[in-house]
Amino acid sequence: MSTLGLLGQVELPAQVASVPQARSYVRDLLDGVGHPRADDALLLLTELVTNSVRHSDSGRTPDGRITVAIAHHNGTLHIDVIDAGSSTGQRPRVCPDTDPDSSGGRGLWLVQQLSSDWGWYETSAGRVVWCQLGGR
């Protein structure tokens, strides 16, 4: 079984201001591998980081942190956003009646539509929300 090759990982404050920092970091990583879906990857990263900041315990505490990890294998890009999870029981889910023209509530819908696969799982340190993009 082959493993993913880690391109990079960065820890950031769980604040809205970290969204462009995460994008810039990942853009630089993707420039190095020339992934054909870099624009899609940056959009999905933006949605995952924004959700993490808005909906996780990391974003609810002044010193909360999130981690972004990017890996690549055989043309597939793997994006992880790791946060503290949610003590309120809130779980990542696609809103059932997502309106593509609305200004909010479309983050995971976009992830579901554009990624080749996505999901989430809990760890002892918190929650990982991930997605994958194949090179088309």
Written account of the structure:
With about 140 residues, the protein is an alpha+beta fold. It has one domain (about 5-135): Heat Shock Protein 90 (2-Layer Sandwich). The protein has helices at about 20-35, 40-55, 55-60, 105-115; strands at about 5-15, 65-75, 75-85, 115-125, 125-135. Helix 1 packs antiparallel against helix 2 (about 40-55) and helix 2 packs antiparallel against helix 4 (about 105-115). The radius of gyration is 14 Å and the shape is globular. About 30% of the residues are buried.
Give me a quick take on this structure.
This protein has 136 residues and is α+β, with helices and mostly antiparallel strands. Helices cover 34% and strands 30% of the residues. Residues 12-130 form the Histidine kinase/HSP90-like ATPase domain.
